[in-house]
Amino acid sequence: MTKIVFFDVDGTLLNEEKQLPESTKAAVRLLQENGIYVAISTGRAPFMLEALCKELDIRSYVCFNGQYVVFEGEAVYTKPLPQESLERLIADATEHDHPIVFSAVDEMRVNLPDHNSVHQGMSSLKLSYPKVDASFYKGSEIYQCLLFCTEEYDHYYTEKFPQYRFLRWHESSVDVCPANGSKAVGIREAIRKLGFSMEDTYAFGDGLNDIDMLQEVGCGVAMGNARPEVKEVADYITSHVDEDGIWNALKHFKLI
To answer: Domain 2-77+180-251 belongs to what topology?
Structure first.
């Protein structure tokens, strides 16, 4: 294998209804048959990928926006959030009635019960409301948090907590990651382990958390449904996820 392709999940492999288009499934299968390595790069936790990875026969992935990297089923890079700074963020968010979901490798918990913004965000992912456990972060390695607040608070949290990046993925929520963390960092760790060069690396994405990744790899592809900021940095813009976007781009680059 001389090339590797990383795919984002939501809005890239999966459409808005969290369904995998048949053309995408066929394209991934052809990539693998052509000897091209296929991996995932996502903000999601590993436990959220089990069904998708099984369906696509994928065993390597970058999760939590670069904080957790798995190669052939084995974790090869892990960087959990520091507990001390996380406690300060939790205290501040609680004062503003902004819930936080704590994401670990195999489960997630939320610190506030029955909050409308959490219902909205989880519903958009086709996930149920997490179990409530405000102290979950104290006994588990937390790799990412979901902070539920509207866009008007983005500047507030960015200014007050410079040790974090706040990546908006929903009108009511942002991913909370280390300031020096990103999908690009995770991909660098992954290809170092896999032995690929960055020049032979492709990545597909649509969201704000994909920008660093698309800029880092040899060829960054933005989906037709991507945000304008993502399209601006992409090397190539393909069609919408529901209009055979992945298939069309891979055909364009003669990878399938």
So the answer is: Rossmann fold (3.40.50)
